[in-house]
Amino acid sequence: MHKNFPLLEKNIRNQFLKMLISLTIIFIVIVIIFILYIKSTNQSLKEERESVSGKAQIVDGLSEAFNGIIFRARGYYAFQDKHELELLHENLAEFEKYLNQFAELQLTDEEKALYNDLVEFNKNYKSVILPQALSYVDANDYEALRKLSSSGTNDLVNNFVNYTKMYEKKTEVDLNELFSRTIEKAQQFTLISLLLGALILLFVAIIMRRVLFNVIKPIEQLTTATNEIASGRFIELGGLVQKEDELGILANSFYKMTLSIQEKEEVLTTQNEELLAQQDELQGNQLQLQQSLDHLQKYNQLNHVLTFTLDKKQLLKNLHDYLNDIYMFDTSVLYLLEGNIYVSKGLTEQTTEQLVGNLNRDKQVRLEEEKFFIITREIAPNNQDIAQDYYHCYDLYSSILNSDGHLVAILMATREGNHFTKQEIDELNGLMNRVSIAFERIFMYEEVERSRQLNQNIIDTVNEGIQLVSITGDVLLINKALSRIIRFENIINKDNVSLNIWLEHFQNLCDQPEELLTFFNEAIIEDFLDTRTFRYSISHNTPIFVEVYATSVYEGGVKMGTMFVHRDITREYEIDQMKSELVSTVSHELRTPLSSVLGFTELLLTKEVKPERQKRYIETIHKEAVRLTNLINDFLDLQRMESGRQQYNMQQLSIDELSIEIVNRFRHEQKHHVHLIDKAKQVNVNGDQERLIQVFINLIGNAIKFSPSGGDVMITLENRNNMVQVSIEDQGIGIPKHEISKLFQKFKRIDNTTRRKIGGTGLGLSISREIIKKHGGDIWIESEEGKGTTVSFNLPLIQRQFESNLEDNEFNNQTGLNVLIIEDDLSLALLLSEELKSRGFTVIYHDNPKRAYEEALQTPLVGIVIDLMLGDEKNGWDLIRQLRDTEETCNIPILISSALDESKEDVARYKIEKYLTKPYPPEELTKALLSILSKASIDKGKM
Predict the structure, then answer these.
(1) By three-state DSSP, how is residue 376 classified?
(2) pLDDT > 90: what percent of the chain?
(3) Which helix (H) or strand (E) holds 466?
(4) Pairwise CA distance, residues 657 & 684, whole Å
(5) Residue 126 gets which letter from DSSP?
(6) What CA–CA distance (Å, rounded) separates 326 from 29?
(7) Which residue from 383, 399, 453, 930 could staple onto 367, CB 3.0 to 4.6 Å apart?
(8) In the structure, what pLDDT confidence band is assigned to residue 2 with cuts at 50, 70 and 90?
(9) What is the rounded average pLDDT of the residues 203-227?
């Protein structure tokens, strides 16, 4: 147990504590004094700086108020504005407030004289000067007002202005002086801090000297004495034993211990010799024990391999390594007949292959009969060998047999000059018997594994998803088809997936979670002989419909689990749905026009009607007959496309020409305006003109049909990735996002109130997709419900590489060069569009002045090309007048393209940039636009 030192008069701890406390108190007192001095100095500087700043603020306020009085007075004199007079009185009140604050400051004699002048000025100005001036203003006597202004008042104003300027300079000087003093004080504080740091270092040096003298030096003496005693010499400790502190006690104890060691040294030497003899004996026993332990450890490792490994190669390698460690073969080969697997030691790969490949059949038969044999060979000395005498070489052949006595593996080993003892042979035979059991276990496992893998492969090739669960609901087996159906691929290689995990997955996945979970739980818990079924669906990008069958699995008459078979019935479901939609659509779309045809026909047959009404009835019958014809044609087109019998007349087409033709077909739409934005420089494709027109009409017809409130339908052409892309955008009712992927299905129509009123067969998009795919393109939809829909498709260009015939000018690579063309001549519009696109412009085509004006308000344009003869309602001049009268469009350059003669007066009035009289070369239009852009660029650079 630990024993405390007695209290000493010169305790080391007390000495150092006293010294440390004294030095700490001195240092703290110095630091406190230094901090108080810094705080006092900073406070003094702060108060002085605040005083100077406050006085400067008051003087600035007096100056601003004084200037306000003069400014407001002159404003009132000049304009007689009552508001200026009110502001003058407010400035007088503010001036008096600052005078009062100025009087409270410590003022110099000069400032006191100025204060008295300002007080006198304020009193005189309010009571005499201002009333007189106001009376002169009211009487319009400005001569008297000028005399009053030229009186002594101006001297006072000038003196005060000079004072304020002088005071600003003085304040700046005072602040700079304060800043310099602050910097000087900071330098003094830094110097004092350095001195304090030096003082701290001095204190530390004093403490370290005391520690070195009172502790370190005595310890060094004790260390030296210890080393001398260890070397067998004795040393005097001198005055160290006379010390009255802890080190003195330690030195006395060390001295007494040294005397005791010397007395007992001889006894210890004798005992040490006896211990050394015992140690040698123990080391010999330990070496023998370690060898036995190593042998046992290797044997245990081999036993573990024999018991648990299922890898033939690993077992063969471990067994071969163990035999070489125990029996120290010079060369050896362990050869497994099944699979031609072998391992060797001391032999090249080529020698081993020859030895295994040329194994004597007679030796194999002998091994099956005798289990082992040894061949002894005499080796003659060779000049190149180390051995110079004859010696014997012993070749051991040992077998591993199966339960039927057939050869499984062969050990061929050689030892030179070291024969095999009977004990080694017996141990080896016993080991080989155990190894044969391990190999049989591996062969049985491999056979079972092959059967299991075969069964699994059979199950995985089945299209239906198979799931076997235990009576507790844990998954025992699942095939790839089910993992693919339910998107649960990460459990395909897992064993015993718990009930809660896979039920939760189904619950999150399917659309009928509660009903499906009830079905699974009842099928797992209940014992039944029949087959139960349930249908569920999985909503994803493409919905999946699944029918699951459940049946109990029995083993020995006892239920051991439940088998679920999940069959993907999406295709059957879609066919059923398609049939239902087909019947519903056809019945509605056929009955509606047939009802009209039969009704109006019956009226014509049974009643006398007026000729004009007869004509209206016949027109209605014709319209409904055309509707029926289109419906039947859609069915026939789709059937031909799906059967591959649709014929396509492929030829070189220009998409922009086709687009403008389509725009003209819809130019008489009342509620919808169809227009074209042409950004595509490459427009030539291989296609069937009639079929592509059918696509355009289907898509534009849908855009019009599903925009019941009207709005623009915009066709945009552009080049992307060696394709020409056509986008048709409307401002209609839009499509819900989750319905977009279904729209290309046959007879698919979105089921809501708005669309139900519109009608249609649901075949237009399906037919359009088939046509576009046959042309090597793609079609897709982008939509936002309530904001409109954009249907886009692309077609491969004939010329894969984009070639540019652009002239070298600074505008070729710019974007946003939009040119609006208003032209009712299709051919000329196409010609101008091709020319402008070849020079890097984007062309927006309209034939309606009203829509063109709206486009100009919404789109940044570099120019507008207008034909003067556009229609009866509004001509080109009307549109130009409207554009120039509108702030947003008044600066857009306008070029006229007309067959009429030029009117110089109108051209000048409306600032027409260029008047082109038809016919003219299209290059003239391009030159005019490039000139306009160049001029605008130069003007912008000057700015």
Answers:
(1) strand
(2) 5
(3) strand 465-470
(4) 10
(5) I
(6) 83
(7) 399
(8) very low
(9) 73
Q: Are 896 and 914 in contact (CB under 8 A)?
A: yes
Q: How many CB atoms lie within 10 A of CB 546?
A: 22
Return the closest-CA partner of residue 501 out of 462, 463, 467: 467
Q: Dig out the tokens for 225 from the structure.
A: 């004495």
Reading the block at residue 195, the tokens are 């001195």
Tokens matching residue 854:
């709206």
Tens of pLDDT, residue by residue over 112-135, are: 777 787 787 778 877 887 888 888
Q: From CA 877, how far away is CA 863, in angstroms rounded?
A: 16
* Cα 644 from Cα 646, distance rounded (Å): 6
Pairing of strands 863-866, 818-822: parallel
Backbone torsions φ then ψ of 890, nearest 5 degrees: -70, -20
pLDDT band at 245 (very low <50, low <70, confident <90, very high): low
Q: What six digits make up the tokens of 158?
A: 């000038």
Q: What is the per-residue pLDDT for 357?
A: 82
What is the mean predicted confidence (pLDDT) over 547-569?
89
Contacts of 74 (CB under 8 A, 6+ apart): none
d(CA 478, CA 291): 52
Would you place residue 247 in the very low, low, confident or very high pLDDT band (cuts 50, 70, 90)?
low
Question: Which three-class secondary structure state does DSSP give residue 102?
Answer: helix
Confidence band of 802 (pLDDT split at 50, 70, 90): very low
Task: Match 């077992």 to its residue by tokens.
Answer: 315
Considering only CA atoms, which of 855, 897, 714 is closest in space to residue 790? 714
Sequence length of the chain is 943
Is there a contact between 325 and 298 (Cβ–Cβ < 8 Å)?
yes
Are 379 and 390 contacting, i.e. CB atoms less than 8 angstroms apart? Answer: yes
DSSP state of 562: E
The tokens for 574 are 């879609």
Note the pLDDT tens digit of each residue in 732-787. Answer: 888 888 777 777 766 665 655 444 455 555 677 888 888 888 888 999 999 888 88
Backbone Cα Rg of the chain: 56
Cα–Cα distances (Å) from 691 to 12, 77, 585, 772, in that order, read 110, 86, 24, 9
- CA dihedral sign, ordered 21, 22, 25, 26: negative
Max CA-CA distance within the chain? 156
> Strands 672-678, 711-720: parallel, antiparallel or unpaired by DSSP?
parallel
Residues contacting residue 731 through CB under 8 Å, at least 6 positions apart = 707, 711, 712, 787, 788
Q: Is residue 314 within 8 Å of residue 305, measured between CB atoms?
A: yes
Distance CA 513, CA 518 (A): 9
What distance in Å separates the CA atoms of residue 497 and residue 706, rounded to the nearest whole number? Answer: 51
- CA atoms of 153 and 172, how far apart (whole Å): 29
Nearest Cα neighbor of 214 from 399, 457, 516, 11 is 11
Query: How far is the C-alpha of 300 from the C-alpha of 306, rounded, in Å?
Result: 10
Q: Tokens for 501?
A: 């995990």
Q: Taking the alpha carbons of 28, 29, 34, 40 in that order, is the dihedral positive or negative?
A: positive
- DSSP characters over 382-438: -TTSS--S-EEEEEEEEEEE-TTS-EEEEEEEEEES-PPPHHHHHHHHHHHHHHHHH
For 400-424, write each residue's pLDDT tens digit.
888 888 888 999 999 988 888 888 8
Whether 563 contacts 466, CB under 8 Å: yes
Check: CB of residue 627 under 8 Å from CB of residue 760.
no
Listing DSSP states for 726-772 in one string gives EEEE--SS---HHHHTTTTSTT----SHHHHHH---S-HHHHHHHHH
The phi and psi torsions of 742 (rounded to 5 degrees) equal -95, -10
pTM of this prediction? 0.39
Residue owning tokens 């005595």: 218
Sole residue written with tokens 């009928």: 512
* Cβ–Cβ under 8 Å, residues 10 and 244: yes
Contact between residue 316 and residue 336 where contact means Cβ atoms under 8 Å apart: yes
Beta bridge partners of 676: 715, 845
